[in-house]
Design a protein that fits this description.
This protein is α/β, with parallel strands linked by helices and 188 residues long. The protein is built from six helices and seven strands; from the N terminus they run βαβββαββαβααα. Helices cover 38% and strands 23% of the residues. It is an enzyme of class 3 (hydrolase).
């Protein structure tokens, strides 16, 4: 069976749970809830395996904190013998309007420290990433407070529909490939 590693970036700890920076964790929690499944704490993260249409999707929430996510990703890629082509990283993006979804085959870290660490650990930018727009609605010098801040009431109302799109896009990535998934879900 073909395996995929789907990584949601975030920070561990209850104080970070519902923050904008934890969109990767929240998206994977939504999928787990959909399957009535629970993550299991393992080495370097919480892991859940889902089988879907002849594919194995290993969902990973690294326990290394955002800025050291690459260590957990490298470990799980090697442990499960998953190629870089089958890696998808879900992360927040300040440069996209709230709720905008954008998948890319490769790219820069865009100033995101989690992506910087992944690039350093994997020694490449050649992996798929799925960015969730959190907007840049903050005053100058308040970026950290914003990304580590909680969602607004209006944003909270829109999250379930966005999570459903992420859920669909993850399985499209595994079943149809990155190109078709980008064409189907980007900016939707």
């Amino acid at each position: 069976m073909k395996k995929f590693l789907i990584v949601g970036l975030g920070n561990i700890g209850e104080e970070y749970r519902y923050t904008r920076h934890n969109i990767g964790f929240l998206a994977l929690d939504y999928i787990a809830q959909h399957y009535n499944a629970k993550f299991e704490t393992q080495r370097l993260g919480d892991v859940l395996e889902i089988r879907h249409k002849g594919r194995i999707f290993i969902l990973l929430k690294p326990s290394t904190y955002m800025n050291l996510s690459g260590k957990a990703i490298r470990y799980w890629l090697e442990k499960e013998k998953i190629s870089l082509n089958n890696l998808l990283v879900i992360t927040d993006d300040l440069n996209l309007p709230f709720g905008t979804l954008r998948m890319k085959k490769k790219g820069s870290d865009g100033g995101h420290n989690g992506l910087k660490n992944i690039q350093a650990e994997l020694n490449t930018t050649e992996y798929a990433r799925f960015r969730f727009g959190i907007s840049d609605n903050f005053d100058k010098g308040k970026q950290i407070d914003y990304v580590l801040g909680r969602w607004s009431e209006e944003e909270i109302k829109q999250l379930p529909e966005r999570f459903d799109k992420i859920h669909q896009a993850i399985f499209s990535f595994g079943l149809s490939g990155v190109d078709i998934t980008m064409n189907t879900f980007n900016n939707k």
